[in-house]
Amino acid sequence: MSTDDKKGQPRRGFLKKASTTAVGGTLLAAPMISKAQTTTFRFQSTWPAKDIFHEYANDFAKKVNDMAGGRLKIEVLPSGSVVPAFQLLDAVNKGTLDGGHGVVAYHYGKNNALALWGSGPAFGMDPNMVLAWHYYGGGKALLAEVYAALNIDVVSFLYGPMPTQPLGWFKKPVAKVADLKGLKFRTVGLAVDVFKELGTAVNPLPGGEIVPALDRGLIDAAEFNNASSDKLLGFPDVVKNCMLQSFHQSGEQFEILFNKDKYNALPSELKAVIDYAVQAASADMSWKAIERNSADYLELKKMGVKFFKTPDAVLKAQLDAWDKVTAAKAAENPLFKKVLDSQRVFAQRAGGWQADYTVDFKMAWNRYFRTGGKG
Length: 375
What we know:
Elements: H1 3-7, H2 11-29, E1 39-45, H3 52-67, E2 72-77, H4 88-94, E3 99-102, H5 127-136, H6 139-149, E4 154-159, E5 168-170, E6 184-186, H7 191-197, E7 201-202, H8 210-216, E8 221-222, H9 227-233, H10 235-238, E9 241-244, E10 254-259, H11 260-264, H12 268-302, E11 306-309, H13 312-332, H14 334-357, H15 361-369
Parallel strand pairs: 1-2, 1-3, 6-7, 6-8, 9-11
Antiparallel strand pairs: 3-10, 4-10, 5-9
Helix pairs in contact: 3-12, 6-14, 7-13, 9-12, 13-14
């Protein structure tokens, strides 16, 4: 007689029951996994569809969409699809759009303190250092304070350190400060005030309107941002001289906006996806900018564009104008002064460290590419 028979219960039957109980217990203990339908956010960028900046917006959206596993999808429209570029912040605030991609300087008209995220020399900080100040030196809280003072209810993420922007595109090269006087010039943010101090008549056009205005003679000169954007927007079709290096927007970055109610309704894991997608997109954008801008810089030269270094006298005049403009703004706007003071404190420490620690890479580049390739 088998052991099963002695106990009056077949072994296989016992094991089957035990197995069923164990599985059932596991099922009861397992957490419920959400299988909610896809949440779709309608975004708009402030850039024309063909601009590399719109591509950056799509790059960010793709990272979110890929990591969200079908639970969140961001759809990005180009500038003007729903609202004009300079109305993006209001549209996101009101919920007309769920989010957007642009720059903080475009909101300058609401509070001039907002232009400090991008415009001006930032006390010698490069764009990545400005982002360091934003996330670790108090800038993020200050931006939230400015938005709250404006009754703007959005969630803002800054990312994507932009390479130094050219002084701009001119019909004649700029040899001295006096060459700027009387020009009808396009720029945005606090650079508007800086160039006014330098004697230009400024028209802050959005990106897609610049080249048509140059072509029709509505403006004499303009700056936008970088070799790739400038080529795609058509600058070399209407102007052949570009002045490189400038302090007017030497530390700018992008802004990703979300309507606060829409963002807050997301579960914590999707908020984390967005947060890490911003960080990943920031690195990816900086790498892509190096690749594309350097290639398009060569293409522009092939198209007959002549590049000139902005004279040091003009750069110094920009700094003089910046100091005058910011002193006046700080005297009339406490929030402006608060942001400016915060940047100064961070820049003194971080900039001093970077200046002392960073080697002059130009020395090595010149050795291999400008002095006969010896080494």
